[in-house]
Write a structure and sequence with these properties.
Elements lengths: L1 H15 L3 E2 L5 E2 L8 E7 L2 E8 L2 E9 L5 E8 L2 E9 L5 E8 L2 E2 L1 E6 L5 E8 L2 E2 L1 E6 L5 E7 L4
Antiparallel strand pairs: 1-2, 3-4, 4-5, 5-6, 6-7, 7-8, 8-9, 8-10, 10-11, 11-12, 11-13, 13-14
Length: 152
């Protein structure tokens, strides 16, 4: 009986601290106040933890593999990806580094293979492909380049 009471209190505490979205798409607490803190969610076996300030996702954001290892991490500003984002493989090695400005791809993006060698370098401007894109083969030799319009 004591275990049952403990379990009931645990679930009541979870429900009391739950966050939901209001009609404006802002995170609120169980009393309807704008939430500030960390939200944790699970979607298609991908766990996420995101900082929320005054109901809006702003701050550190981290996504995890089902194993619990970090899959991707970066910053959010006013609900959009911003600044550097880093993606990892299941072994914890960096597989890609990219940048966002107000939710749009920006600047130089780099993709690495399983051994940690740079395999592709891409550039974006305001979410559009821009500048020279280069890919390298397994030996490190340039495999291809392509130039896109726009500025870096």
């Amino acid at each position: 009986m004591k275990n049952l009471i403990t379990i009931c209190f645990f679930f009541l505490a979870l429900a009391a601290n739950a966050q939901s979205l209001n009609e404006k798409g802002l995170y609120i607490d169980s009393e309807g106040n704008l939430f500030s803190g960390v939200i944790t969610s699970l979607n298609n076996n991908v766990k996420s933890e995101m900082d929320v300030k005054d109901g809006i996702i702003s701050g550190k954001a981290t996504y995890f593999f089902a194993s619990g290892k970090v899959m991707e991490a970066g910053m959010m500003v006013n609900g959009s990806k911003d600044g550097q984002w880093t993606r990892y493989n299941e072994n914890g090695m960096t597989s890609a580094i990219g940048f966002y400005a107000a939710g749009k791809k920006s600047g130089t993006w780099i993709v690495y293979d399983e051994a940690g060698k740079k395999r592709m370098e891409m550039n974006y401007s305001n979410g559009e492909k821009a500048g020279t894109w280069t890919s390298w083969d397994e030996s490190g030799a340039v495999a291809s380049t392509k130039v896109y319009g726009g500025a870096n």
